[in-house]
Amino acid sequence: MMPIRSFAGACLAALASLCAVAPAAAQKYPTRNITMIVPFAAGGPTDVISRIVTGHMAPTLGQSIIIENVVGAGGTTGATRAARAANDGYTLITGHMGTHAASAPLYPKLAYHPEKDFEPVALLAGTPILILARKDFPPKDLKEFVAYVKANAEKVNAAHAGIGSVSHVSCELLNSILGIKPVGVPFNGTGPAMNALVAGQVDYMCDQIVNAVPQINAGTIKAYAVATPERNPSLPNVPTTTEAGLPEFQAQAWNAIFAPKGTSPAIIATLNAAAVKALDDENVKKRLLELGSVIPAPANRTPEALAALVKSEIAKWTPVLKPAT
Amino acid sequence: MDLFANLAHGFAVAFSPINLLMCLIGALVGTLVGVLPGIGTIATVAMLLPITFGLPPVGALIMLAGIYYGAQYGGSTTSILVNIPGEATSVVTALDGHQMAKQGRAGPALAIAAIGSFFAGCVATVLIAVLGAPLTKLALAFGPAEYFSLMVLGLIFAVVLAKGSVLKAIAMIVFGLLLSMVGSDIETGASRMAFNIPELADGLGFATVAMGVFGFAEIIRNLDHGAEMSRDLVQQKITGLMPTRKDLIDSAPAIGRGTVLGSILGILPGGGAVIASFAAYTLEKKLAKNPSRFGRGAIEGVAAPESANNAAAQTSFIPLLTLGIPPNAVMALMVGAMTIHGIVPGPQVMQKQPDLVWGMIASMWIGNLMLIIINLPLVGIWVRLLRVPYRLMFPSIVIFCAIGIYSVNNAPVDVILAGVFGLVGYWLIKHDFEPAPLLLGMVLGPLMEENLRRALLISRGDWSVFLSRPLSAVLLAIAAGLLVLAVLPSLRAKRDEVFTESEG
C-alpha cells in the first residue's frame, strides 16, 4: 500500500481525497496523451530516434505520444522545461549525452541537474563517434594520426559544430587523451563543419556516424577509427579505436528517455517496458541500424543501468570540459 | 542523353497525383507563410516536418521544398503592400515596391514580382539539372576568408543602396552589426549583451527586429496626422492591375540580371540569398541611366531582387543534392526530413535516390508554374486589401505580426522587443535613417564575425589571408571600388543632389 500512497501523494497532491481511487489510477496509466520533449530541432538524430521508438511505444501504452521540439541553448532549454514539469508521467524527455551529462560541467549556471532532477527511464540508442579527417590529411591510419597531431600540435585545426555540441565535447575528450590543444574552429552546426572538412579547410573532426557515412563512402573525407568497442555494420572497414591502438578513446552519443524527479516507480516501469518492447521490434531495430545507431544490450536497458550510465558519463566529461569553459 | 532521361524520369515521378497534390499544398502553404508577416519559412518547415513522418519521402520533400520557394513569392506581397518584409530576402523589395503601392501601382509591382520569380525559378531549375554537380565546386571553394570578404561586399551594397546620407547609412549598418552581436559568442559560448535574459541567449531574431523597425514603425508613422492624407490617396489612385508593356520592357533585363546573380550567389551556403537580393538591387541602381528613380517606385527595383531571391532559393538546393550538405537552416531541416525517412543525404544521393532528386527538381518547375497561376489572379485580391480602412487594417497587421513573432520561439519577450524596435524604428524614420541597411547589417553580422574569426583561427592571426586568397582578394577589391564610388567627394555632391529625399 505504501508505494501507491506515496505515488498518489506526489502526483495528485491537490486531489488528496482521491487517494482511495489511486490504485485504479496507477494501473490505468496512461489515461491521456503523453508529451515527449525533444530538446533539439525536428529531424536531428535525437528527434529521429525519439520518433522511431515512441512510434512503437504509443500503441503499447494505448495513448498517443506527442513530440514537442523545444530547442535552444544546446538542448538545455528543453531539459529545463522537462525538469520543472509535473512528475505525473505525462511529460517525458528524450535527452542525450549533452543534455544529461556534458551539460553539467559545460554550463555552470544550469537550471537543473541531470541526476538530481530526473528519473532515468530507458536507454534507447547509442550513436558511435568517428575520428574523421580531410581526404588529403597526411596520416594514413590512427597511429600515424596520433603521431602527426602530436608533432604538429601548433599547426592542426579541429572543426566542431559549436560549443557543447557532440562534435565539440567528443573532440575535447580525444584532445585531452592525446594531451594536445589544437585550434578549434567553431561552425554553426554539423553541416557547415562537414562542408569545411570536405573542402579541406580544416584538418580533422570528431562526429557522429550518421552524418559521416555517406561522405566516407564517397571518399570525400576519411575515417581513422570508430570510438566504440565493436565495429559498426555501416562502416565494416573502419577499425575500432581499440584495434587501432587508442583504446582510451571511447565515446558514444547516447539517447535516453527521462522523466521528472519523483515520477512513481510504477509509471517508470510501465514506460521502460514499452521502450524495451520497442527496441525488440524488428522494424524499429532496422530503422535505428540504418542510422548507424547501436541498440543497447538487454542488460543496459533498465532504469538502473541508465542511472549508472549518467553517473559514469558525468564523471567522464567533467574533468575534460571543466577547464574548457 | 542522360540529362533528358533523368529529367523525364523526374517529371514522371513529380506528375504522380500524390506528388502533384503535395507540390500544390507546399506552394499554397509557402505563399501563405510568405504573406503572413513574422511567420518565417524556418519556423513553418520545422512545424510541418513531423507531419511528413507519415508521408512517402518524395512527396514529403516536394512539399517542404514547395513551402521554401513558395514563401519567396509570398514574401514580396507584404513588402509591397504594407512595407513589412517577412523574410530577409524581401527587405529590398519593400524599398521600391511599397513606393509603387503608394503611387497606386501595387498591381504591377505584385505582378512583376511573380513574373520575375517564375522566370528565375525556371532558369534555376534547368541550372540545377544541368550544372548542379560542377557548380558544387563553387560552394567548396568558399572558405572562411572568402565568406568574410563577401560579407564586407554585402555591407558595402547597403551603403550604395541608401537613399540619403552615406554617413547615416554607415551608422545604420554599424547599429545592425551591434544588434547581431547579442547572444552567445560562437567560440567561447560566453553570453554577450544578453543582460541575463534567457531569451536573448540565442540572439535577437530577424523577425523581431524586422517587424519592429519596418512594420510597427511604419504603422506608428502612418498614425501621424499628416500621413493619413497620403494614405487616402493610395486607396484611390490604384491604376491597372497588370504591368504595362513599358513595365515589362523595363523589367526584362533586370529580371535576367537578377536571375544570374541569384543563381550564382544562391549556391553559397549561409547568406547567399540575402546578398543576392541586395546585390541585384545595387546592380540595377548602378546600371540605371537615372538612379534617382530608385527608392521612388522603380519597377526594376522590384523585378531584380525578386528574381534574384527566387533563383537563389532554388540553387541553394545544389549543395544539398550533390554533396548532401545543407547550406542554410531550411536545408538542414530538409536533411532532417530525409533522415526521418531513412534517407541519409550524401554525395551519392543522386545515384542512390534518383526518384527523390530528379522528382524534386522536376517538381520545382511544376511548383513555380503553380505559383504563378496562384499568384497572378491573387494580385487583384491583394490590391483590394489596400482599400481596407486603416482602423481595421492596423490592428490586424499588429495582431498578425505579434502572432508571427511569438510563434518563432514561443517567447513573449520577443513581442515586447518588437514593440521596442517599433519605437526605435519610428525615431529613425523621423530622423531620416533608413532601416534597410540596419537589417542587412544584422543579417550579415554573424556570418561576417564568425568567418572573420574562423579565417584568423586557421591562419593563426595572419590578416594577409584575406588578400592572399584570390577569390577573397577580388571580392575585397570590388568592395573597395564600390566604397570609393559611394564616398568620393565629387561624386557625393552629385549623389546628394540626385538622392535627397523630396518629402518633408
Automatic annotation (TrEMBL), chain A:
Q: Does the keyword Transcription apply?
A: no
Could you tell me which species this protein originates from?
Bradyrhizobium ivorense
The source's superkingdom equals Bacteria
Tell me the leader sequence span.
1-26
Arranged from A to Z, the UniProt key words for this protein are:
Signal
Question: Which lineage ranks, top first, belong to the organism behind this chain?
Answer: Bacteria, Pseudomonadati, Pseudomonadota, Alphaproteobacteria, Hyphomicrobiales
| Residues annotated as transmembrane | none
- Which PANTHER family does this chain map to? BLR1237 PROTEIN, TRICARBOXYLATE-BINDING PROTEIN
Alphabetized Gene3D superfamilies for the sequence? Bordetella uptake gene, domain 1, Periplasmic binding protein-like II
Q: What is this protein called?
A: Tripartite tricarboxylate transporter substrate binding protein BugD
Q: Which Pfam families does this chain map to? A: TctC
Q: Which family does it belong to?
A: Belongs to the UPF0065 (bug) family.
TrEMBL record, chain B:
Regions crossing the membrane: 12-36, 42-69, 109-132, 138-159, 166-183, 203-220, 260-283, 325-344, 356-382, 413-429, 471-491
The record's InterPro entries line, in alphabetical order, gives: DUF112_TM
Residue intervals of the DUF112 domain:
20-440
Its source organism is Bradyrhizobium ivorense
What's the name of the protein? DUF112 domain-containing protein
What are the protein's UniProt keywords?
Membrane, Transmembrane, Transmembrane helix
- Write down the superkingdom of origin: Bacteria
List the lineage, top down. Bacteria, Pseudomonadati, Pseudomonadota, Alphaproteobacteria, Hyphomicrobiales
